[in-house]
Amino acid sequence: MTPGTNTMNNNDTILKVEHLSMRFGGLMAIDDFSFEARRGNITALIGPNGAGKTTVFNCITGFYKPTMGMITLKQRDGDHYLLERLRDFEITKIAKVSRTFQNIRLFSGLTVLENLLVAQHNALMKASGYTILGLLGMPAYTKASAAAIDKAKYWLDKANLTERADDPAGDLPYGGQRRLEIARAMCTGPELLCLDEPAAGLNPRESAALNTLLHSIRDDGASILLIEHDMSVVMEISDHVVVLEYGQKISDGTPDHVKNDPKVIAAYLGVEDDEVEQIEEQLDEGRI
Amino acid sequence: MAQSSDNNSLMAQAAKEALVAAAVSFGLFILYVGIETYQDINNALVWRTRWGLLAVFVVIAAVSRFLVVGFIKPHLDKRKRDKAKAGIPEVSDGKNFFQRNFLKIALIGLLIYPPLSVMLAGTQGSLKYVDNFGIQILIYVMLAWGLNIVVGLAGLLDLGYVAFYAVGAYSYALLSQQFGLSFWVLLPLSGILAAFWGVILGFPVLRLRGDYLAIVTLAFGEIIRLVLINWTAVTKGTFGISGIPKASFFGIWSFDVGAANNFTKAWGLSMSSAYYKIFLFYLILALCMLTAYVTIKLRRMPIGRAWEALREDEIACRSLGINTVTTKLTAFAIGAMIGGFAGAFFATRQGFVSPESFVFLESAVILAIVVLGGMGSLTGIAIAAIVMVGGTELLREMEFLKHVFGPDFTPELYRMLLFGLAMIVVMVFKPRGFVGSREPTAFLKERKAVAGSFTKEGHG
Ligand SMILES: Nc1ncnc2c1ncn2[C@@H]1O[C@H](COP(=O)(O)OP(=O)(O)O)[C@@H](O)[C@H]1O
Ligand SMILES: [Mg+2]
Predict the structure, then answer these.
(1) Ligand 1 mutation pick, A23, A27, A61, A99, max ligand atoms within 8 A of CB
(2) Where residue B257 falls among pLDDT bands split at 50, 70, 90?
(3) Do B43 and B185 share a domain, yes or no?
(4) What span is annotated as the signal peptide, if there is one (chain A) (predicted)?
(5) What is this structure's pTM?
(6) Which among A165, A168, A175, A216 is positioned nearest to A193, based on CA atoms?
(7) Across the interface, do A128 and B301 touch by the CB < 8 Å criterion?
């Protein structure tokens, strides 16, 4: 299978990134990068440290303004949004793309449940008549907040955190914090969920729990874009893999395709982190 | 056996450190305290020694050091160790009746406070307790609760809060004199005007974070004060505005001496300003309750949760689709509105406003109360206001100190020193303020307080 074939079908594309470039001073962190993610898939963006994966995420979710390029999001009902023109919070609110961070960003002083309620801010805000009707105790708001708690319960259950619902988020173990951050992102009701290295630092048991959560999110109808470092995780759960190195795409296709791509093997696959550098050195010297 | 030898070495250590402290303080103070220069009748500079006073300083330093090293520190360490062993979080749940009903008891106490002080001190004598203590403290409680929304909940460091207090006070002073509007019309109007200024200031400023925000708000507070001083045509500058009308009892009874519907006449009471002060006491109490009610309600609304989330992590907020600019603006505006209410009340209580009441020090005191109380906690802040403002007023009462330190001694001049000392003591022993824990706004099974170590102070 060639890299292009399954991305030509535009009908069920959810995210299309075209000619994306991001420059930091003299550094071209992303250089003319294009890819597509399909609805209902788990798409993985992989690459060595410093390849520019997080930067791509920051461009998609509006935390950086790309130097060049176009990012289109197509919603289920056919609406298109050009993400590079929206502000960061609008990308979640209007375009329905939500994300997690490589360094977990929870509201550590709020409880686990409160974290999930904050994520439903926009829906609750509307239901509370921008606070005014809510202050008057209107039944519509009471109903909406009960619904919000139900939604939170649903994701607490999926993330296996129901027992810890009333504890401060900062008190959770690392794996629990990762799952809470994902559950919180899901509470915004996204069509596309972007996860930045969700498996980093997890032990095997937590990793397995994470995979279950991701599969149930996909079965729920959200598409997932995933940055990953750990190749084994990627190969197991993703439908489509894009490989990035030094800000440029070096491979794109199914896990099997990518796994056997010599460029990827040279850069990445089957070697430990420190060995990568070794191989790169050898490459430079023309020994391989 | 081991215990007592431990103790001996500890005492030796304490004695040694006490000696060092004595030597250091001797060296430090010998020139400042031990020797005094003054001018004699011929205006010549002469000096004399004060060895006695110097000895007092040195002894205080040595004894304090001895006590700290020998007793206080081991005690604290032991407590910390015990706590760590037992794994008890900072808030224990074994509450007694008093703790559970603390708020109700406090409210009842406040309601019967004025009649009680009339009974105990007489009509005229109650003035001091109702006005100097009661009203004064409650104004600061209200201001601190208002600032708490901005600093404690939303985590935005506002060093110019007194500006909104000034806007409220001058709105009432000017509009009541120019247009003869009554207090009850102008109270909400002052709040709205202050909120309006809050938004005007907030809009450009709230893009800044941390230190930058603090400095710009500080500057805004000063600008408002300087405008009040220099715009003499309207504000009468440093002379201030006097003769501000009194608030009436909802228009039914007036507290003006000459008025036909004068309160004391209508009720056949003897002429005294005490009744007006008691009325004001209940008025500010009601305003405080309103502030508390709004704060408690808002905290459970999506907007309140967004404020606290903003304090915890602004970037995460944006990733969840929260418009942080409007969220900050609402916090700023509501805080400013409460400051405006308090300002209008201040103006009607004093009958006089001048820029001197709105100096930076006021902002600092209000902020200190919020921080000491424990950011976000209404109870803690109220306690801090009582301790700080009540303590200041108490200092004024300490006439007997004059007999100890001589007739020139004015205890209230030491109020800032004591303020600072109190802050250091509280910050050492309770770094999160009197009430460091946080009540969650929603729960599934049980409401567990969040220990202060998890909450953040915000970035600015
Ligand atoms: N805000 C920034 N300013 C300057 N350089 C940045 C910034 N963000 C990322 N970079 C640089 O861009 C490159 C890609 O970083 P990043 O996207 O974090 O890599 P990855 O997530 O793939 O490990 C790195 O060289 C990094 O130093
Ligand atoms: Mg990264």
Answers:
(1) A27
(2) low
(3) no
(4) none
(5) 0.79
(6) A216
(7) yes
Q: Report the nearest-CA residue for atom 3 of ligand 1.
A: A24
CA of B438 to the centre of ligand 1 (A): 37
Domain around A182:
108-188
Residue B460 placed within a domain: no
Through-space distance between the first and last CA atoms of chain B, rounded to whole angstroms:
54
Whichever domain contains B224, its CATH number is 1.10.3470
Same domain? For A204 and A124 the reply is: no
Residue of A63, A101, A114 with shortest CB distance to B305: A114
Domain count, chain A: 2
- Nearest Cα of chain B lies from the Cα of A109 at a distance, in angstroms, of 4
Domain boundary among A139, A167, A188: A188
The angle at the Cα of B8, spanning B4 to B11, to the nearest 5 degrees, equals: 135
Which 8-state DSSP code applies to residue B389?
I
The predicted structure's pLDDT at residue B192: 93
pLDDT confidence band for B93 (50 / 70 / 90): very low
Which positions 291-320 of B are in contact with A (Cβ < 8 Å)?
297-298, 301-303, 305-306, 308-309, 311-313, 315-320
The listed range with the strongest mean pLDDT (A159-163, A256-260, B144-148) is B144-148
> How many Cα neighbours within 13 Å face the side chain of A117?
33
Give A-chain residues touching B313 at CB under 8 angstroms. Answer: 105-107
- State how many domains chain B has: 2
Is B357 or B93 the better-scoring residue by pLDDT?
B357
Atom 18 of ligand 1: nearest residue by CA position? A54
CA distance B399 to chain A (A): 46
A107 vs B312, B442, B451: nearest CB:
B312
Distance A44 CA to ligand 1 centre (A): 18
Please tell me the distance from the alpha carbon of residue A46 to that of residue A65, in angstroms, as a whole number: 22
Q: State the DSSP string of A11-65.
A: TTEEEEEEEEEEEETTEEEEEEEEEEEETT-EEEEE-STTSSHHHHHHHHTTSS-
Q: Rounded mean pLDDT of B332-340?
A: 93
CA-to-CA distance for A32 and A30, rounded, in angstroms? Answer: 7
Q: What is the mean pLDDT of residues A121-131?
A: 78
Residue B55 and residue B195 in one domain: no
Tell me the residue range of the domain where B168 lies: 111-429
Q: Is B187 helix (H, G, I), strand (E, B) or coil?
A: helix
Let me know whether A77 and A8 are in one domain. Answer: yes
Nearest one of B238, B241, B243 to B355, comparing CA atoms = B238
Looking at the structure, do residues B129 and B63 belong to the same domain, yes or no?
no
The alpha carbon of A25 and the centre of ligand 1 are apart by a number of angstroms equal to 12
